[in-house]
Structure formats: C-alpha cells, structure tokens
Task: inverse folding
C-alpha cells in the first residue's frame, strides 16, 4: 500500500524503508489503534461521511481483525511501515476499498497520539495496582515487626534505634506518593487528541466531543497543534516511573546490605536468590540487584525523551517516532520489578536477634542521654557535650553507656542519677520518640492505620478508573 505515491516517482531506498519503519515496536498499540479506529468510524458516520451500513461493516471487520491479532494469527508487514498502515492494509484485504474511507479526516499524527493516550491510560492503572500490591506487602510485614528493633542510620553509621515497622513504613509512604503522582498524571493522559488531523484540525464536521465520549476521555485538546505535538504526558509518566524505580533501588540497596554476612539482618527466600557457578556456598540477592540495575534504563528513557523534545518546532516531526520504545520498555520494566518485589518482601526472613544486637551497639542511645539531661534543665548544647564525653569514655574503656557505673557518669554531670539506666534501654529510647510520625510504637500503630486507610482509598480509586 503506497502512502504518498502520487507525489513520488521513485521508491524509498530499502534500507531507509527499514530504518524508518516502526512496526518492530509499535505493534504493541494494535488493540488501541483498532479501538480508536472504531470510534473514528462512528464519528464519520455521524458526520455523514459513512453510511450506517458502511460504518457497521468497518467496525465489524476491525473487531475481527483485533481477535486475529490477539490470537497471533496476523503477521505484520515491514513495507507498511507502522501499525496504522498495517491495520489499514489488513482491513482493505477484508472489506476492499471501503477501508480507504476510514482515514478521512484523520492523520497518522493524531492517530498515533490517540493510541499512546489510550495505551498509557490503561497501563498506568495496571502499574498502580502493582504499586499497591507492594505497598500492601510492606504494610503487612510492618504489622509483624512493630516490636523488632534495628539501628536507624545516617551516613550509613548507626544513629538511633528504630522499629523495623517504622523503617518499612517509610517505603510504604514513598509508594503512596508514587501512586499519587501516577494518578495525577493519569488525568493528563486521559485527554483526547483525535480530530486534530495533521496539525490544523479535521474537516468534514467531525464531532470531537462525541468521540471523546465514546472513548471515555475526560476532556480533549483545545488546540490542534498542541494535540499532535504534545508528549508532556509521556515525560510525566517517565518521570513518575523513574521515581518509583529510584525508591525501589534504595530499598534494593538496603536489602542487599542487610542480606550480607556483615549485616545478616535478613535472609531472602531462595525463590528470589541465585547461587554461583563456581562458589557453592553463595546465595546472591540477584533480584534486588537487577531492580537496582534496571533503574538506569528507566532514567535513560526519561532523559532520551526530554532530549528528543527540547529542540522540536511545532508540530509533528519524525523525531517523535522515538517516543514509543522507551515508554514500552519502561512500562514493562517497572511492572516486572514491582511484580517480583511484593512476594520477595512477603517471604523474606527477619533476623530479629541480629538486628537487636546491632541496635544495641554503636551508642545509638547516646541521644537519650542528652535528652535526659535537657529534661533536668541543662541546655541541649551542654547536654550534647556531656553525652559525647561519656561516649568517648566508653570507647576508651571498651564498654557501653548502660554498663557505666553511676559514679563514673556523675564525674561528667552531677545531674545524672539512677533513673538514667531505665532510659538507656532501647525500648525506652524508641518509645521516647512519641511524636506524630516518630518511631514510638503507639505512633507506628497510628501510622499503620493511616497508611492502610490511604491504601484502601487508593485501591477504590483505581477500580473506579478501570470501569
């Protein structure tokens, strides 16, 4: 099928034909191209371009074609360049010249934009479901480990003891923001470009509001040039996806560290680990490492899209053909990472004793000494100095704060009394952080209740959008 044979007297070079073709990857849009084409045929019938019988014949043939594509019975042709022309050729083979009427009032420019909006609108909802599943796994694991203590770190140095639930809920909160961003972006995805034509708008009195209603779009582009050239919604998706992967990569880094013999805080299930071809003792956290590594390819797609668009004049340019492969790869990559992560979290074993042992080392209760002195009216900076001197004494004498005799402590401050020992206990240190958002166990239970409510509300919202 020749798209521009009337203007050209020479065939395109065979390599250029292959170089410019997008059917290698945009076949992913086949279903959505057909959905959009059916809606366009109804608009053409409403405008009087097609008769009712013609529209019904085109629509029926398109749905049959969709079934064949879904079942793998269709082989796409490189010579037809892209998914749009492949489907038009296949439709022509089914109903003859009537297929040629379908492209009336439509350009591949607004057609491909429509396909991308429809594709992302559906796939982002699947991505939201997978984010929700991982968040639920983190919440469930947190519920099991409110009383499990481990060191909280700054600069990767032991800082203060925290509950494992508190630590995991930090990632649940990150995912909550990730889902919020996806939802907010979804509303900008759910805008219809069809009817913009090549750039100046379609003729034939096509009713764009009618098509938007048929395709369940919330709104449509008010400017035809913007409609065919806009890829902001793709950049926004890629940005949101990059942030999801950044959060997963941070969690992966911690799981990798925690599963090492040096930490031994957790043990990942064998279903989410691998061995070594040479060293029989090895159990490697390959899944977490792969997720960490795949973050780079998602970042790459975002930077690629930003670079493609930065110098493009209005409206459509062939550069925009490069908008799809990155999106398709990112969608699969992020969905796969989330799919594997939820059960990996659910099945990992927690070594409570090792966590508690680490939490009790590194003087993670030193801040409590300063707080204790502040409560006795010593200014914090002075209290901080006293606590620091006590820590130095312990280091020099190979001991810990809770084992120092009271007489030694009182050499550094006469405000210290026997009640200091109660406050040096890790459970006391943790529960002393009893402020909203803190690691005290009553606050963690409030956090869990809140994030569970937010999570449930998010799930309801996802289901409503899928209707």
Result:
């Amino acid at each position: 099928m020749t798209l521009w044979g009337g203007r050209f007297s020479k065939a395109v070079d065979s390599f250029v034909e292959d170089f410019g073709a997008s059917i290698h990857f945009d076949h992913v849009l086949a279903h959505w191209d057909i959905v959009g084409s059916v809606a366009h045929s109804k608009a053409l019938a409403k405008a009087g371009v097609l008769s009712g019988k013609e529209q019904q014949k085109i629509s029926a043939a398109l749905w049959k074609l969709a079934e064949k594509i879904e079942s793998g019975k269709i082989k796409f042709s490189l010579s037809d360049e892209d998914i749009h022309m492949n489907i038009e050729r296949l439709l022509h083979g089914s109903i003859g010249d009537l297929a040629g009427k379908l492209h009336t009032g439509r350009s591949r420019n607004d057609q491909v934009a429509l396909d991308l909006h429809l594709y992302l609108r559906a796939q982002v909802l699947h991505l939201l479901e997978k984010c929700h599943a991982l968040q639920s796994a983190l919440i469930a694991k947190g519920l099991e480990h409110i009383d499990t203590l481990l060191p909280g770190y700054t600069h990767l140095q032991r800082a203060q003891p925290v509950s494992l639930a508190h630590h995991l809920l930090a990632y649940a909160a990150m995912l909550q923001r990730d889902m919020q961003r996806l939802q907010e972006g979804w509303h900008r995805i759910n805008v219809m470009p069809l009817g913009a034509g090549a750039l100046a708008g379609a003729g034939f009195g096509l009713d764009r509001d009618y098509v938007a209603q048929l395709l369940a779009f919330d709104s449509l582009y008010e400017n035809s040039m913007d409609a065919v050239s806009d890829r902001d919604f793709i950049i926004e998706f890629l940005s949101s996806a990059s942030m999801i992967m950044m959060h997963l990569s941070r969690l992966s880094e911690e799981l990798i560290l925690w599963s090492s013999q040096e930490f031994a805080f957790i043990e990942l299930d064998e279903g989410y680990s691998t061995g070594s071809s040479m060293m029989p003792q090895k159990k490697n956290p390959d899944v977490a490492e792969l997720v960490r590594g795949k973050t780079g390819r998602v970042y790459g797609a975002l930077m690629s899209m930003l670079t493609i668009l930065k110098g493009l004049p209005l409206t459509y340019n062939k550069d925009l053909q490069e908008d799809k492969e990155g999106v398709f790869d990112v969608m699969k990559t992020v969905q796969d990472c989330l799919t594997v992560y939820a059960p990996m979290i659910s099945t990992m074993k927690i070594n409570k004793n090792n966590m508690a042992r680490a939490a009790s080392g590194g003087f993670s209760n030193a801040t409590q000494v300063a707080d204790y002195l502040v409560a006795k009216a010593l200014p914090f900076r002075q209290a901080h100095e006293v606590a620091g001197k006590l820590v130095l004494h312990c280091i020099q004498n190979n001991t810990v704060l809770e084992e120092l005799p009271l007489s030694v402590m009182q050499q550094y401050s006469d405000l210290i009394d026997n009640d200091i020992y109660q406050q040096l206990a890790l459970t006391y240190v943790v529960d002393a952080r009893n402020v909203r958002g803190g690691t005290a166990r009553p606050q963690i239970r409030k956090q869990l209740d809140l994030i569970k409510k937010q999570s449930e509300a998010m799930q309801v919202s996802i289901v409503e959008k899928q209707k």
Remarks:
- Residues 5 and 456 are 56 Å apart (CA to CA).
- The two ends are 38 Å apart (CA to CA).
- The first strand starts at residue 149 and ends at 154.
- The beta strands are 149-154, 157-163, 191-192, 219-220, 266-267, 349-350.
